[in-house]
Amino acid sequence: EVQLVESGGGLVQPGRSLRLSCAASGFTFDDYAMYWVRQAPGKGLEWVSGITWNSGSKDYADSVKGRFTVSRDNAKNSLYLQMNSLRTEDTALYYCAKASRVGDSRSPLFFDYWGQGTLVTVSS
Amino acid sequence: QSVLTQPPSASGTPGQRVTISCSGSSSNIGSNAVNWYQQFPGTAPKLLIYNNNQRPSGVPDRFSGSKSGTSASLAISGLQSEDEADYYCAAWDDSLNALYVFGTGTKVTV
After folding, report:
1. Which of the residues B32, B57, B85, B105 has the least number of beta carbons within 10 Å of its own beta carbon?
2. CA A121 vs CA A5, A66, A89, A92, B6: distances in Å
3. Helix (H, G, I), strand (E, B), or coil: what is residue A32?
4. Which residue in A81, A4, A50 sits closest to B93, CA to CA?
5. How far is B85 from chain A (nearest CA, A)?
6. How confident is the model at residue B96 (pLDDT cuts 50, 70, 90)?
7. Calpha distance B6→B45 (Å, rounded)
8. Which residues of B touch A63 (CB under 8 A)?
9. How high is the pLDDT of residue B89?
10. How far apart are alpha carbons A100 and A49 in whole angstroms?
């Protein structure tokens, strides 16, 4: 059974840092790209960042570019999100999501499994 | 910031058919596959439809997806009370550094 368990959220002051973790199990972690998606309270979903299976490519939403860094440790089956210079607008539930595709490497990715999320609150 | 537009709400009675629209542009829906996610209050999103019209294992066949041009639709036929949830469309966007964009979300009430 695929499981994704996020941790590391909490209350932090603006300008400070936080590191989120996502522990994966139930699948061959280093075969898949992984992503972070967030949801502000009462709002919709927002793609935050993604990383390929070998960390060869990393992408970020413009809203977090230069402040957030995604990484992974395939030996530990873990995904991370280092969040620096946090702003009040970064307050959200952060989900990690496993990406999958049907077909060859040119086939489109979709998020087939999601964790339950970890809440980040940025407030003074 | 959502670039895919959905109606904020949709409703129906049990057994009815409900359709949710998702409007995008040539850089996202117009050139990439659409996925749909279902989210119940207080829970994580769940993949409902991938690659425009494919259902993952376990998703009832009363859920169906379609795409035409720069728009997509999710249809729920034979609406059931347990279908009451938020629904989001999503697609990759070629013009925004390979961003994955979500729709604004639609609350379905039964």
Report:
1. B57
2. 18, 20, 9, 7, 28
3. coil
4. A50
5. 13
6. low
7. 17
8. 1
9. 98
10. 15
The pair of three-digit structure tokens given for residue A72, joined into one six-digit string: 């992974």
Q: Compute the C-alpha angle B51/A38/B6, nearest 5°.
A: 50
- How many other β-carbons are positioned within 10 Å of the β-carbon of residue B64? 17
Tokens, residue A74:
């395939």
**Residue B66: φ, ψ to 5°:** -150, 160
Segment A8-18 shows an average pLDDT of: 98
Model pLDDT, residue B97: 64
Of B33, B99, B105, the CB nearest to A47: B99
pLDDT score at A104: 80
Q: Judge whether residue B2 has pLDDT over 90.
A: no
**Residues B62-85: what's their mean pLDDT?**
97
Q: Are strands B85-93 and B63-68 parallel, antiparallel or unpaired?
A: unpaired
Kind of pairing between the strands at B85-93 and A18-25: unpaired
Place of tokens 């059974």: A1
* Identity of the residue in A44, A114, A117 whose CB atom sits nearest the CB atom of B102: A44
The tens digit of pLDDT for each residue in A63-105 reads 999 999 999 999 999 999 999 999 999 999 999 999 999 888 7
Residue recorded with tokens 């936080």: A18
Structure tokens at A18: 């936080």
Backbone angles phi, psi at A30, to 5 degrees: -80, 10
